[in-house]
Amino acid sequence: MLTISEQQQESNITKNHTVTIVNDNHIVSHYHGELRYELKLGRNLYVKFPDIDEYTHYMVKVIYFNENLDYVLMQTESILPQPRTTLPHDGDHVLLLAYSYTEISRTLCITSGIISSTKQDKYGHIRSDCGANKGDSGGGGCFTAYGELCGIAIGTDAIQPTAPILDLTTRYSSRAHIISTEVIIAQLASMGLTKGQEPSYI
Q1: Is 186 exposed, middle or buried (0-12, 13-18, 19+ CB in 10 A)?
Q2: Model pTM?
Q3: Regarding the domain delimited by 93-185, which CATH topology (the fold level of the hierarchy) does it fall under?
Q4: Which residues is 11 bridged to in the sheet?
Q5: CA 144 to CA 92: how far, in whole Å?
Q6: Partners of 153 in beta bridges
Q7: Per the CATH hierarchy, to which homologous superfamily does domain 2-81 belong?
């Protein structure tokens, strides 16, 4: 769970959302929902990353958001562990990692599947058949079988509003909507923030 708050210590304004590291100074998350009211350009916030037995806090600044593609970029002056990135391909086996949104369980959710299609829809998203519930999909990283970051999960196909949020049938029949690393890195490059780091074409 990556906690976004206005101070290093959690308070009653704390918002819990999943974010994913995309390079050594930048993280990304979804923009939809009540999160968008907190993520204003230039605003300083804290995120906390789980460590072995504690959390490490980093101050980040909101530097860009795209409401249509539904993602937000944040920057920190701290050095983050940089993931290896690649481009998604049709049929790639992938793992989707995100923290549960529910009050019942703030635990890591891991589902597996394949990239169903890399053809972008009208929102710029691609598809995976990784099961995901409303809430524990947005902002989570999508990784290949080799541990390479290939995309960021933004949401899922619509489900019945009365469906229990922890229902396994719903979780594993939904499809994740994903933003490819190509989109994220292209945006960072346009802002001069990639430091020459490009995704590997495998």
Answers
A1: middle
A2: 0.79
A3: Thrombin, subunit H (2.40.10)
A4: none
A5: 7
A6: 178
A7: Trypsin-like serine proteases (2.40.10.10)
